[in-house]
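Researcher: Here's a chain I'd like modeled. Treat it as a single chain, no partners, no ligands.
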Amino acid sequence: VLVLDGSEGIEAADTTARVHAAAARALARVQEWLADERYADSRLLVLTRGAVAAPGEGVTDLAGAAVRGLMRSAQAENPGRIVLADLEPGSAGLPVEPAVLLAAAEPEIVVRGGAPYAPRLVRAANGATAPEAVPAVRFDAPGAVLLAGGTGTLGRLVARHLVTEHGVRELLLVGRRGPDAPGAADLHAELTGLGAEVTLAACDLADPDQARELLARHRVSAVIHLAGVLGDVTIGSLTPELLAGSLRPKVDAAWNLHELTRGRELSAFVLFSSVAGVLGNPGQ
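Model: Modeled as a single isolated chain. Structure tokens:
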């Protein structure tokens, strides 16, 4: 059994740099392990601390959460060889012997209070059966709803939904190509025809200066982040450059939007992610 500590010992200037550094280190380690024939019959135990939101908790280790997402894809490509274990937030060392964690025969384990727990996918409760009432998200505050990646496939679907189902009348659709993106003019005409005021903006939200300048020019009432790039390869073929390129529009852009709007009265801050980050998927 080999143990990889997901984000322990990573020193970085800020949150996004820490995420990039932890993910890059984890990628390098798992590639070395998979390529070394001496470890062909071994198993890899990947540790994080506070990267999972157990009941009543929030995620405190964002870098570790990114490592877990990457390792889920590695798990899908190498069934039975990788185990993810999330320990108490802020803990040091390994409170449970690796053999105990592996004996559970679970691909993912969360350890709280010295006891191991395994995740299960269950049907979501709704309406009267929900344990706690969750207030509906509203998009009727003054200002524009900002859609990062607004001219992409998901952006188009969500923009139409906001206008037709939620009555949103002001949209700020942001992408690196803005009005020059394929189909942007048709989308603008369609949404305008439905009664919305639409602004197409070219901006690299992963660049904090560009993001700051954009938000200084627009009154934003809600943020929906859908931006991303496709770079699907298996773990063995994934390069540090491809990994960084995939993280940039997701991690960097989302963090910039968070930092630049945290002082505003937003009605919603929504982050879209692939289900591969939760369930794992070969090549993603």
